Amino acid sequence: MPLPLGFTGARLDRADQLRSDSARFGAARADPRARCLLLDGIDCVPGEGGGLCWEPLDPADDRALMLLGLDDAGIPHFVREAAPGARIDARSRTVMRLLPLLSAEEVALYGGARSLVDWHARHRFCAVCGTPTEVFRAGWGRRCGSCNAEHFPRVDPVVIMLAECDGRVLIGRQGGFPPGFFSALAGFVEPGESLEEAVARELFEEAGIRVSDVTYVASQPWPFPSSLMIGCRAVATDPALTLDTTEIEAAMWVDKAEVRAALAGDMGAPFLAPPPLAIARYLLEDWAG
């Protein structure tokens, strides 16, 4: 199986022990070796060599610092909250053209930083009383000064799955996809359901198929804006499709030869495969392999 998955593999020690220790966090901030990740809003900025761009901490910048972690040499790495008025478009895909310039480890590190900065930009007010909140716990939380409620970054669980029937798997496309592009079906996990139940519900709602034998394959953080993609397989009892056209524009069953052709970029393949960073491609590679 191809490893690592996109946006996984960051090697920084998250240094949780520093988050609740103001003295140690202060010492990390004062470390002359400390580096801060440069972002344009929440998009990465390429460095001169094509990797991420890191800068020394600027004492004149009063934006809140968020500790990403410590590297193998103990050097603290930070990211700052977005500047006032910065454009925060969590679903923008313009960053995709910059990601190939990064190593797999840098992609993972950037993905976590992006989601963290985006979360802070969208949670400036207390969800309990509406009062403005302040950053605490080294950037891994916000606290309300009025009602003392504490809020912490969250991820949204999303199941993404391949249904299999008679040696073929189901793929689909939404109306906004590029021409010819197909991917695995996916949907958010709802309150009160297990992952297995979410897989079965989404496949029935979007494609009208009933499935059993749901199995877990792999997971992937997806920072657009802050999802955890949970890859699964399931077995369909009947290949007949009834599409929810408000969600799925088209869907089709494909066999291993067709999937392999798409993954190889063959001109005669019946569809365009997902990009290498996406867990949908990982699922297809794993199944076809």
UniProtKB/TrEMBL annotation:
Matches recorded under InterPro entries: NAD-cap_RNA_hydrolase_NudC, NudC-like_C, Nudix_hydrolase, NUDIX_hydrolase-like_dom_sf, NUDIX_hydrolase_CS, NUDIX_hydrolase_dom, Znr_NADH_PPase
GO MF annotation list: metal ion binding; NADH pyrophosphatase activity
Gene3D superfamilies, A to Z: 3.90.79.20, Nucleoside Triphosphate Pyrophosphohydrolase (3.90.79.10)
Keyword entries, A-Z: Hydrolase, Magnesium, Metal-binding, NAD
Keyword match Lipid biosynthesis: no
Residues annotated as domain Nudix hydrolase: 153-285
Catalytic activity: a 5'-end NAD(+)-phospho-ribonucleoside in mRNA + H2O = a 5'-end phospho-adenosine-phospho-ribonucleoside in mRNA + beta-nicotinamide D-ribonucleotide + 2 H(+)
Keyword Metal-binding attributed: yes
Cofactor list: Mg(2+); Zn(2+)
Biological processes annotated in GO: NAD+ catabolic process; NADP+ catabolic process
Gene Ontology terms: cellular component: cytosol
Enzyme's top EC category: hydrolase
CDD domains reported for this sequence: NUDIX_NADH_pyrophosphatase_Nudt13
Enzyme Commission identifier(s): 3.6.1.22
Domain of life: Bacteria
Sequence similarity: Belongs to the Nudix hydrolase family. NudC subfamily.
Full protein name: NAD(+) diphosphatase
Organism: Sphingopyxis bauzanensis
